[in-house]
């Protein structure tokens, strides 16, 4: 027969057998239910020990073997639960919890890693190390509120309540119901007040209007919510089936007195007709046992491989990246722009007071839940494929992707030195991008100034010296009338001395060529005569004049040899 051993170590115990182990053994001996794990016997590895104070060994609790737990299955990515599977799981879980409450026992540590499952789809509630007997009549007796893993802890315990009852276990079951549908913890934080804030964002901020006794709780005076939130649980879980959403709404009620009981939850429309024994089990991985410790080993191995890959990789490239990398702190971290419930590793849970009955960290989970682990999405193939698709889409769209987002996609932990190196790399890339952008602007400006040949004006005379000049293309203007000859034919040249002063070129007789009307264009370099024959005149007359030199008309007195006109600055 295959069994499971739970080790109770005594090396570090100063007061003999741990009280938590005694409590678990005592309670499990009194419970007998198909949905509660069966304790077969207790054994020790030193059968001949006479004095355990001097010859300390280890005790083992022998349980029936269960192939998986819910945490390992959710993290593995190897299973896909549908609505009928979730209903079967919740029916079995609430059936076992209702049995415990009828026997006046509180579990006080319900979470996914404490819910076991075999390959036939049977659910069993385990780990009664924090369980205790309670009296419904003796409501004045206080209990410790440092129980239940933080993510599954109800608001009354977060506010310091010490006189509680079965409602605390129902809240934990409600968190598991939401987690089975979303595949991630519903409320995630690493401190008690932050956990209460995460609950408030979904279930509403606790107040006397919805919870009359909340003002009597010890921590109510110190509870200072950042914002008053309204209850929006139905909006957050609108994708759930209607009956399942109704049950979730009742199980996650802020006021414990209004919270549904386990017995009433079994009578809800969603679970009343569910018969797990008649349902086919989910397609579970028979070749692999999915437990919490197996998930931890996978994460440790993944981190080790990532560290080895990072240490063996060469220097990061400083250019040639297909996307822009911005600084670690720049931009919004959207990849996740983190949702209302921020992803926090299950290993980051807060301690509640040490390990139960001497279990070491390598071989057991702690009662505080600090070793409970969130779904390691980067490990399973589905999440890895999603990450690769996201990175590929960013490559194709040329989107800006920060290193923090890229590291988050690939589940890479960046230490301080690597972070500084990446920030320096980002600065170099940003400077290179700025220089490249400036170069593009300069090239565009240079191209806009490229000179273009100006079509010649109609010939005024048969013999004319043509000059081709290249100058910037002016802005489009209205069509100008056909140009007229600068020097009317058949009329003497009549130019005043003031008009001729400083313009043109003087000949041997001291005369100067007349200057045509100024053009509105910037100064240009002196044009060079073209040796090629002039191109044919355009079909339509040009809209601007062209500098040229010409022989004087026959009727005008000879002005000397033809000269080239210098460009004249625009008239003021």
From TrEMBL:
This protein's record includes keyword Transferase: yes
Positions with biased composition (Pro residues): 515-541, 551-561
Entry keywords, A to Z: ATP-binding, Kinase, Nucleotide-binding, Nucleus, Serine/threonine-protein kinase, Transferase
EC number: 2.7.11.22, 2.7.11.23
Matches recorded under SUPFAM superfamilies: Protein kinase-like (PK-like)
Annotated catalysed reactions: L-seryl-[protein] + ATP = O-phospho-L-seryl-[protein] + ADP + H(+); [DNA-directed RNA polymerase] + ATP = phospho-[DNA-directed RNA polymerase] + ADP + H(+); L-threonyl-[protein] + ATP = O-phospho-L-threonyl-[protein] + ADP + H(+)
One GO-annotated biological process of the protein: positive regulation of transcription elongation by RNA polymerase II
Pfam families referenced in this protein's UniProt entry, alphabetically: Pkinase (PF00069)
Region described as Disordered: 306-382, 442-572
Primary enzyme class: transferase
Location(s) in or outside the cell: Nucleus
GO CC terms of this entry: cyclin/CDK positive transcription elongation factor complex
Domain called Protein kinase: residue spans: 1-271
GO MF term set: ATP binding; cyclin binding; cyclin-dependent protein serine/threonine kinase activity; RNA polymerase II CTD heptapeptide repeat kinase activity
Composition bias, Polar residues: 333-343
Biased composition (Low complexity): 311-322, 372-382, 459-481
Main subcellular localisation: nucleus
InterPro entries: CDK, Kinase-like_dom_sf, Prot_kinase_dom, Ser/Thr_kinase_AS
PANTHER family assigned to the protein according to its UniProt record, in alphabetical order: CELL DIVISION PROTEIN KINASE, CYCLIN-DEPENDENT KINASE 12
Family membership: Belongs to the protein kinase superfamily. CMGC Ser/Thr protein kinase family. CDC2/CDKX subfamily.
Name of the protein described by the UniProt record: Cyclin-dependent kinase 12
Upper taxonomic lineage: Eukaryota, Metazoa, Ecdysozoa, Arthropoda, Chelicerata
